[in-house]
Amino acid sequence: MVVTPRRRQAVDLDQVKRDTRDHVFISWMAQSGIAPLVVTGGEGSWILSGDRRILDFSSTLVNTNLGHQHPKVIRAIVDQAERLTYAAPAFTDEPRATLARMIAEVAPGDLTKTLFTTGGSEAVENAIKMARLYTGRHKVLTQWRSFHGQTQGAMTAGGDNRRWPSEPGIPGVVHFLNPDPYRSMFGNDAGKALAHVEEVIWYEGPDQIAAIMCEPIVGASGLIVPPDGFFQGIRQLCDRYGIVMILDEVMTGFGRTGKWFAAEHWDVVPDIMTFAKGVNSGYVPLGGTIVDGPISKHFDDHVLWHGLTYSGHALACAAGVATVQAYRDEKVVENAAAMGEVLGRELRGLMERHPSIGDVRGKGLMWGIELVKDRGTKEMLERWNGPSQRLATAIRNACMQRDVYVMCRWNLMVIAPPLIVTEDQLRVGIRAIDDALSIADRYAATGELS
């Protein structure tokens, strides 16, 4: 199925820039002097800005898993708009019901019933609420190195500095240290990390804890891949103390790590799982919270105290149905696994030429490069959670000058191209990163960015 392309109307880039400057807030930035890229279109792995083509090497916000303007998804949105654009959340409709079934079919274990949201933050909010309603307990344990969103509860659950300006957050959230094989005191020892988690459980009171919530692979707060055995151990702790296990798969879900969901790498099934981003590649805002059989049955006789005007929006769910079908038909998840092997090998190869690279880690098409001043001491080249983004900005700009977009934060580069990426496109991105890393090498040696 193809969509007949319409003739593109020229966009006045200068007018868009003026209107943005005068009338639009840009996230995560002081507003004076910023000049955001004007996006006029997209094609597969490419972002278009007027006549310029930019390789999207971080899937925008690690969400355009299927690439830009996939014709089957666009066609599904158009067809759905002609039939039904919206139904109240107390009703139901075909795309909502179909997508919920399709997600249950690919989700781990007995995860079976979904509450749809408009994004990842709301999905996390609902996961917290549902765990508390189900258990009758209050506390939620999360990792320090994490990000779960920017609504109040999700913000509190996160561990990086994006929560600081809006604190205090919700009560009852307790953090524990991540098992970071590269940097933490636990090293690659899952047993030591789990002993720490259990000690925190005892400090907080096992019968007070509703849930333990983790990203299976930490995203923009470090791109941390846990040691094998860690999540199996978290599952056992949750079972031992009657705690709900929540996995936040907003970033890792729908093929990003080379499997449908990252939990599959460790054969772990959570009680609740959140998703967004890759469910429809961001074409229409959508997220969700899916729960297992026991929690689903609990709400047969107990009120689910939550609702959203746009829960299960018809256009968003139609896009989701087409996206999941495309993942299946076009073997997108398999491509992510295969291209992930190539990407990981190429990124590790950069370490031979760039002494500022301390570590390269990831799975599938979700990789991180951690930059250090000295490999021996592992001193960060820019302090994580620190106020400075000078290095990250310089590297990102250098990549953009080479028409490659890469997400950079502090001393971390997030390499996460669309799951449809080709080997030739990977090499284009790698060359741009290779060039840009000369900035990090110079900064490590001299403290100067230019």
Furnish the topology, listing elements before pairings.
Elements: H1 13-23, E1 41-43, E2 46-49, E3 52-56, H2 59-62, H3 71-83, H4 94-106, E4 113-117, H5 120-135, E5 139-143, H6 152-157, E6 173-176, H7 190-204, E7 209-214, H8 230-241, E8 244-248, E9 272-275, E10 287-291, H9 293-301, H10 314-329, H11 332-350, E11 357-363, E12 366-374, E13 379-380, H12 390-401, E14 404-405, E15 407-409, E16 412-415, H13 423-446
Parallel strand pairs: 3-14, 5-6, 5-7, 7-8, 8-9
Antiparallel strand pairs: 1-2, 2-3, 4-10, 9-10, 11-12, 12-13, 12-16, 15-16
Helix pairs in contact: 3-10, 4-10, 7-8, 11-13, 12-13
Essential attributes:
450 residues, Aspartate Aminotransferase, domain 1, Aspartate Aminotransferase, domain 2, 7-stranded mixed beta sheet, 13 helices, 16 strands
What does this molecule look like?
With 450 residues, the chain is an alpha/beta fold. It folds into two domains: 13-69 and 331-446, Aspartate Aminotransferase, domain 1 (Alpha-Beta Complex), CATH 3.90.1150; 72-329, Type I PLP-dependent aspartate aminotransferase-like (Major domain) (Aspartate Aminotransferase, domain 2). It contains 13 helices and 16 strands. The strands form three sheets. A seven-stranded mixed β-sheet has the order 4-10-9-8-7-5-6, sandwiched between helices. The radius of gyration is 22 Å and the shape is globular.
